[in-house]
Amino acid sequence: MSTRIYKGHPGPGIKVTGEALVASDNFSARYDLDLVKGIVSRPAHKLVGQSYVGKILILNIAKGGVASAWMLRDMVQSGRTPKALILNFANPIMAQGAAFADLPLIDRFEVDITTVIKSGEMVTVDPEAGTLTVGS
Amino acid sequence: MKLDDHQKAMLAGAEGRARQYAMEQILKVGRFFDAEDCVPISQVHLMADPEALGPSGVDFLESLAQLPLADRRVRVPSITDPRGVDFNTYKRLGQTERMADLERRATAAFEALGFMMTNTCINYQSVIPPVLGEHLAFGDTGSSIYANSVLGARTNFEGGPSALAAALTGVTPRYGYHLDSYRRGQTHFEVTTRPRDLAEWGALGGLVGRAMRSYWEVPVLSGIKGPVTSDEIKQFGAALASFGSTPLFHMIGITPEAPDLKAVFDGPVPAATPLGRAEIDRLMASYRPKDDKLDVVVFAAPQLSLFEMRTLADHLDGRRIHKDVALLATTSPDIKSAADRMGITASIESAGGMVLSGVCFYQMYARDIGEANGWKRLMSNSAKLVNILGGYGYEPVLDSMAACVESAVAGRIVGASA
User: Whole-model pTM?
Assistant: First the structure.
């Protein structure tokens, strides 16, 4: 199986590997997630009802309020957390929240990252290098 | 990222663990956005309600609060966004002692750090409005977009951990909206109608917000004739920042960095997307309910100004809210105190409404409150609120304050939304 590598902007967190959960929708921890159940809860979201726990969560743009900056750390410490957050464009709130939580985060790829990776693919996230590696 | 000697000393821990954490946070975020250095800020507005903090966030704050005084006190005036519990009303709303305890602990920790507990998201109306060119670290998105756009001050969205870092050091990474180059217009909308009430101003903001592709896109609106009030542009901006994630807009002839189209765009003025009556009506209609059932009416997000409180009291004058419907209005402790003194609170309460102080509906465990009270169908004149609550198990309806009050009195949804 061939390996695909996508280059984005380096971010916080350590190197992790996991199964991708992908949608072209946007992302807000406060507006889109049920943090207790560990599922996407916003009715209009394509991933509604799906668990993000242990997944490499790949979405389009960070949206919405500032609460996510605190919530990501609580999410990580509760254990009901994605392994990494991958976005086409993070906003400062996601960057601040990921920095505070030590949640791996990469954004600003050369391609639309939500169109080149499919849910279920195994992905390695290296925040220090800013790379996403699919396959092995 | 360049740090001066003082910042390097704080990073090395020379001024205690709190300021060391703060510089680490500043450095991580600054590097992510390729900031060259830090910029001194003059005030901090911190968003940290207990629902967002969670137990781990409160533990973290308490670990800073027990440090020696010299190591823990904030270095610039620092104020707070709405809290999650109003101790005068929380039992009536079905909030739990666990929520109240978390709130007490968080508040005690913030006070130990030297925060002034203003508990408001309308600090630009009720505390100290920033001025043109002033660098800030503001938390709440509505507060940030107002400060950037309407007042010409300069802030990114500073989530709690970063606003706290700014408070402890007096600086924040210099990136994004602190820089001239990021404040230039990019996308052009021509508004061909005049919103008729605050709900429609919010709807217009929602339309622009939905069209935004990222935090970095700056929308420019032309075509809005005549003066705009603080409450109108507050609803517009709050909705824009909620539907999108954008902290700055320019409104030609109205906001200070936008005297005309040429002043805000680099190069030729881009073709405008028209936004008119049909688009506003369509957004309002997208929140139209399938029947006329009504559980709760909420005026919040942003907290009400003194003028909005007066208008609400006038709508409710001599009326009685239906026994099966709750009506809540949230405002800041300072505005509440003024409203108490002026008889405004009494007017709202004598009609059967509740005035909540220092909280905002979506920041006070809205999901749990809804379940505790059996509230599902919610009506509001805030586009921001209806946008948020869709993810919280509510069926929100957006209409004018007048229609919301008429519906609360009738006990069912009446007016355009019926």
Answer: 0.94
